[in-house]
Design a protein that fits this description.
This protein is α+β, with helices and mostly antiparallel strands. Helices cover about 35% and strands about 30% of the residues. It has helices spanning about 70-85, 105-120, 125-135, 180-185, 195-210, 215-230, 240-250, 275-285; strands at about 15-35, 40-55, 60-65, 90-95, 150, 155-165, 170-175, 250-255, 260-265, 290-295. Strands 1, 2, 3, 4, 5 and 6 form a six-stranded mixed sheet that branches. Strands 8-9-7-10 form a four-stranded antiparallel sheet. The chain is globular.
Amino acid sequence: MTGPSLITRRPGADLRSGRAEASGTFGELLQGRLPDGTDFLVTLPITLRSRAWFRFDPAGPLRVFPAHKTKSLRLAEAMLAAHRPGGGGTLILDSDLLIGKGLASSSADLVATARAVGGALGMDTGPAAVEHWLRPIEPTDGVMHPGVVVFEHREVRLREALGALAPATVVAVDEGGHLDTVAFNKRPKLYSPAETAEFTALLDALTAAVRAGDPAAVGRVTTRSAVLNQRFAPKRHLDAMLAIAERTGALGLVCAHSGTMLGLLFDDADPDRTRKVAEAHAACEALGDDTLLFRTLTQPSP
């Protein structure tokens, strides 16, 4: 039996702490613009996530680890200033999510940070409150909301909750490099009236498909979204992946619209799922880039 551990701390230090996490996404099921000019995306939550731990210190400096997580540092500073000016503490972040790939790594870090800091300080950490804190930081994915949601990422605002997607697997190709989401969202994107009308129809179709539990209809929408957005962040393997999807019986393509990944979506309830995923994985590996597997998140993260 081991003895008690010794903890050294400054007398009078406040040891309130908070722990939290937030899931990432595999790109988006759909992303585009509506006729009224609203830019939107529809989330595809995955099981990989970011975790944050925060210990409040009313007299100390604010430190973040790793030190390059400057967006989370800014967010923690803003929350501390609103709660108790002059306070600090230690914020530690850990993530399963690759950076700059279109997996919402930055959004997950920020949401986990808001939940951990808010939990330690006794602040509201509901989705609307988290939106409020993230809005001044950057355009953000909708990972503060559970399930599949339509999210206005430039305004950092929920448009509509669609529910949960049936369990699915994504076989993905990472085409390499990194994409800066903030810089990407600053680029002008010109859509024709015909395109914005098509995005409206696609959003209606996707909403119905998710709520009806129709994975084949979901796949048709996600494939069309990948094709429509090809001119903004082109994927060089698009045609090859379309062919693999057809050959292996995938539901369709799913795209990291502001990232480097393109994936094939498979329904986990398909009795042929294991064979299809294996065949797709081998075909994707033959393209010469990194091939990865992702699982969709069907329950909200705690």
